[in-house]
Amino acid sequence: MIRINCPFCGERDHSEFGYGGDASIQYPALDAPAKDWIEAVFQRENIAGVQQETWQHTSGCRMWIVVERNTITHEIHSVKPAHPGTKTLLANAGDHQ
Fold first, then answer.
1. Which of 43, 61, 77, 91 is deepest in the core (most CB within 10 A)?
2. Which pLDDT belongs to residue 92?
3. How confident is the model at residue 88 (pLDDT cuts 50, 70, 90)?
4. Which CATH number does the domain 3-96 belong to among 3.60.40.10, 3.30.2270.10, 3.40.190.10, 2.60.120.20?
5. pLDDT (tens digit, 9 = 90+) per residue, 24-59?
6. CA-based angle 40:18:11, to the nearest 5?
7. In angstroms, how far is CA 95 from the centroid of its own chain?
8. What are the boundaries of each domain within the chain?
9. Are the C-beta atoms of 68 and 76 separated by less than 8 Å?
10. 10-13 and 18-22 as β-strands: parallel, antiparallel, unpaired?
């Protein structure tokens, strides 16, 4: 079982998260030619080892996170918010109520 330490909710079972894919993919603009989208979505390397992945905490805070995980051993090396500044914004949200 994989346990993911959500930066917002703490350690949870991976079944609470939805896998979003390889975090290193640079997707083309929405109006880009189909060949560019095919390259980005289907023609990518299947990494055996450490890679960065996006996950969404669907059964928790619903935030997107970036997980650095070994695809062979499933060992998680790091977890961080997918969008810079998210954790600070959430921490400061109580100041404006």
1. 61
2. 72
3. confident
4. 3.30.2270.10
5. 888 899 999 999 999 988 888 888 999 999 999 999
6. 125
7. 28
8. 3-96
9. yes
10. unpaired
Task: For the chain, give the number of residues.
Answer: 97
The residue with tokens 């979505």 is 41
Helix (H, G, I), strand (E, B) or coil at 95: helix
pLDDT score of 96 more than 70: no
Task: Identify any residues that bridge with 5 across adjacent strands, giving them in sequence order.
Answer: 11
Write the CB contacts of 32 (distance below 8 Å, at least 6 apart in sequence): none
Residue with more model confidence, 90 or 18: 18
The CB density around residue 29, as the number of other CB atoms within 10 Å, is: 8
Identify the CA nearest to 14 among candidates 50, 60, 51, 77.
60
Long-range contacts of 81-90 (CB under 8 A, 24+ apart): 81/7, 81/8, 82/23, 82/54, 87/7, 87/8, 90/8
